[in-house]
Amino acid sequence: MASMSKADIGRFLARQGILIAFAVFIIGFTLANERFLSPDNVMGVVRSSAILGVMALGVTFVVISGNLDLSVGSMMSFSTIVVLDLHDKIGPALAIPAMFAMTLCLGAFIGFLVGYLKLNSLIVTLGMLSAIHGLTLTYSGGQNMDIVDKEGTWFAVFGQGSALGIPVPILIFVLLAALLGIILAKTPFGRTVYAVGGNGTAATFSGIKRARVVFLCYVMSAFCVAVAGLIQASRSLGSQNTVGQGLELDVLAAVILGGASLLGGSGTIFKTVIGVLILGFIQNGLLLVGLQFYVQFVVTWVIIILAVWLDIAAKRGKLWSNIA
Amino acid sequence: MTGQPPALRLEGIVKTFPGVRALDGVSLSVMPGEVHALMGENGAGKSTLMKVLGGIYQPEEGQIIVAEMPTVMTSPLQAKSKGIVFIHQELSLAEELSVAENIYLGELPQLSFGRVDWAKLYTQTDAILEKLKVGFSAKTIVGDLSIANQQMVEIARALTVDAKAVIFDEPTASLTDAEKVVLFDVISDLKSQGVGIIYISHRMEEIFKITDRISVLRDGSYRGTLETRNTNEEEVTQLMIGRALDLSRNASHHEMGNVALEVRGLSCGDLFKDVSFEVRRGEVLGFYGLVGAGRTEIVETLFGLRNPSAGTILLDGEEVHVSSPADAISKGISLVPEDRKGQGLVLGMNCRDNMTLPQVGDLSSGPFVATGAETEIFDKYKDKLDIRTPGWKQTVGNLSGGNQQKIVIGKWLSMHPKVLMVDEPTRGIDVGSKSEIHNLIRELAAQGYAVIVVSSEMPEVLHVSDRIVAMFSGKVMRTFASQEVTEESLIQAISGITATDKVA
Q1: Residue A141 pLDDT more than 80?
Q2: Which residues of chain B does A194 touch, with a Cβ-Cβ cutoff of 8 Å?
């Protein structure tokens, strides 16, 4: 391609940049540590990405509808603490639906504020991040929550069990991804999510009830958070109040990494799954090459910036803006 | 003018994009003190040429010569420093800042320690504003100004540099007639100061009023330059589209059906008051008036976007209340909105999905969207409306204005509405597609649709309507039958001159 102009190359790099960077990472990590691509490690990465992944599925709906959800991390802490507490009080069979109901209420509340009252989603969910954290602490009295009889409960199956040799968290992630992927890509509701995020005014002018669509996206996100909380609680059968802290950024990083635009209107569930895996492998690789765990907080930030930059660069067709 | 060198000369400009030769050796020369119209259909290459001139695109061949100096343009800022100033159709002002701050943004006069020299700023600005004879001061907040006055601020900003050439891109798109007069005065002042002006517009009337020469582009190549005095609309149009445009009166010859929509005493706050009219099946009812006369607000109310404060709406003789667009659509009232890109389309979505958006909930098999049925609908209306696109997967944002508008029209036709309302059917659409849209509207009436057309363009409203409702300041002044209306009586009605006449 001798005739490729500078702009073409810029556009190509911007479009494929994430995958190229990912490939470089994989090659580098594999050279640095041959265990990186071993089946055990790969399975481990997917398994530990499942909770993040499940949350990212819901946030994908919110982001495509043109909004943000920064509350999912603290909401996941809430779900985990609530289901663990209720497990011993009313038994797992009632604890799970009760926790789902409470989490969905939180999602519905956010959806009401952003959808029907048209409040800015960044402010609403940033506020909810803090408010739900307070709610969780109030609920637990600040204590860690533990199941008393850790050996004798079937509740452990969601986080620790496996079927057909595949860990249950992975199964849940895959099945939920398939279900939500179909809802987003194939149903009338999914279509309206894209329309509302692409151009909310035009959606309204086409008779779409924009507020309702936004509302449902947040309920969907809360549902995913509840599933993630269930897996988390089941995996450890005990938890701190801050178990989901900071996950909102990882989730957002995965969604953007997958290529959903922060401006709304684009993205798919499949791409989000790819984003989740990329993030998981990069964080795992950094650990394997011996970097401290804490480095990954910085790395997550770098990945978000990189992904947002490339998204914008792909739109304007070059990496740098010549204005400013 | 003879003997003087041109203020600005473009020579043999070639610009290609992958697969398209957007500009094919285009030349253009603007004399000092000349108003030079640049015309052509959308996609003819006008905006590409201007982007080359502004340094946004680099041409592969050809050169730009400013006051006899060959110049390489690298950015709009650099073009400005060479005396090439652009007045864009979309304003780029900071609404919260004052007029003076906007004009000198980035180059505010300063005192020591980086403090702004406000006294100097305001004196300088007022001097420029005086030249423009505008009725506001340097301290006015830009957001409080009308669109026309905001445009004046843009022009004032252009005057702060020693402009050799000023490019006006569709400057009158959102101006009222009175505001246009002010703009034209300013242009003639610039002209007398020896500034060369490139004037881009689709509006023939203006072109013939204020320009000296007209250069025409078609399909990226230069088609010729005409002396405005020695030519006429037909000749220019032919040069632009390669054929003549029909803008004759066009009252329907077919039978009208029963009354589809009747509105009695409809009011909405101060926006419009006591509006009554009816439209029959097979009829095109035109709404004509100045910007702000309340026309758009009426159709928006009928579409459920506003709540009427009084009055009744009858659909097929039955009283209805329209609470939301979704409600309007389900009752058979549809609206092609005035802002095609902002309100009509989801630009990032493909053609088919845009067209079927309002009915996507009904087009389902089980829980899923019936994409087969969607594609069928799209293909049917693609043929019916002659929408030119490679296929349904094409992103709507990539289509020309005319084809985009047809997608919006197709969106409603495929749902067989009782009333089709079209607000500014051809805004920003090139002259060729314009006549196609006009014919389409006529044809829809002939097929028995009740159509309401809102337009700011008199030739358009005269061309497509069977009857015309003339509005002034939120009130219906008169309703004309197509055969009886004259341009004079229509202008008088929308200027409020017949306010004392009996309202029809």
Answers
A1: yes
A2: 346, 349, 353
